[in-house]
Amino acid sequence: MDTANQLASVGTFQVLKLPLGFIRVLEWLFAIFAFATCGGYSGQLRVSVDCMEKASSDLNIGIDFGYPFRLHQVSFEAPMCEAMRTERVFLTGDYSSSAEFFVTIAVFSFLYSLVASVVYVFFLNKYRENSQRPLIDFVVTVVFSFMWLVSSSAWAKALSDVKVATDPDEVQLLIPACKDPTNKCCSLHGPRWSGLNTSVVFGFLNFVLWAGNIWFVFKETSWHKGGSRLAGSAPDKQAGTFDQQPYNQGGFNQSGSYNTQGSFDQPSEYSQVGGPTSYSNQM
């Protein structure tokens, strides 16, 4: 308990209120939902085969399947409608690569979000002291956002193919006895897809979270801080260029006369060269 109390006192839980820490917690939770809804799925469909010979009929054939959706390995016993014999029928398709890729990205993003949240809470100062750590965090965030987009798109396409391959009407076409028009085959119920549909939604939500968090992680890097310093120093340089000696073409002396470069000596009385100097002389 003492260790836990010390960690709680040292931890800066205020970072969880900031977008940097809060989004990491959301990424951690949404990653759990993504791999839980996909990796924990199991479904069942049921079909019936009503043979012309009623004794050979099987009106309740259950077919179970689930993650990782290697449907070509899923089999069931179907009546041949001949002498009480049955045969093993396999579903078609292997969609394990897309499903496992999606779950792998979800698990790794869950682990990284958990580690990053712990670092933000208990080691935020050390995280910011070393310029390499925010850069690594930024690169990993970009990579995970891209991988979430790719894996979610691949899994969405694979899920649509799984729905087609496990459609009871399509499964009936795999049963040889159903190809005989004298026998009647019908579907009882199909799988429930709400869980897998939710996994696709959580996949794209994770992409939105990771892509949106790129900006907040980028603000912690030296790239953003260096650009902010350059942007802040530019106005200072411009202001410094105006703090020079003021521009003076001329000035006013204390006597009130305006002096420009190169003064002009003008007489106080108006006189013309060679002309009368006064009114009395004219008279």
Quick structural gist:
With 283 residues, the chain is an alpha+beta fold. It has helices at 2-10, 19-39, 96-122, 124-129, 132-165, 168-172, 194-218, 222-241, 279-282; strands at residues 42-50, 58-66, 75-79, 86-90, 184-189, 250-252, 258-260.
* Overall average pLDDT: 81
Strand content: 5-15%
The radius of gyration computed from the alpha-carbon positions, rounded to a whole number of angstroms, is 42 Å
What letter string, H or E per element, gives the SSE order? HHEEEEHHHHEHHEEH
Number of separate strands: 7
**Main sheet overview:** 3 strands, antiparallel
Helix content: 40-55%
Number of helices: 9
Keyword list:
7 strands; three-stranded antiparallel sheet; rod-shaped; 283 residues; 9 helices; two-stranded antiparallel sheet; alpha+beta
Describe this structure in words.
It is a single chain. The protein is an alpha+beta fold. It has one domain. It has 9 helices and 7 strands. It has a 3-stranded antiparallel sheet. A two-stranded antiparallel sheet has the order 3-4. Helix 2 packs antiparallel against helix 3, helix 2 packs antiparallel against helix 7 and helix 3 runs antiparallel to helix 5 (132-165). The protein starts with a helix and ends with a helix.
Give the SSE layout.
Elements (H helix, E strand, L loop, with lengths): L1 H9 L8 H21 L2 E9 L7 E9 L8 E5 L6 E5 L5 H27 L1 H6 L2 H34 L2 H5 L11 E6 L4 H25 L3 H20 L8 E3 L5 E3 L18 H4 L1
Antiparallel strand pairs: 1-2, 1-5, 3-4, 6-7
Membrane topology: Multi-pass membrane protein
Family: Belongs to the synaptophysin/synaptobrevin family.
Main location: membrane
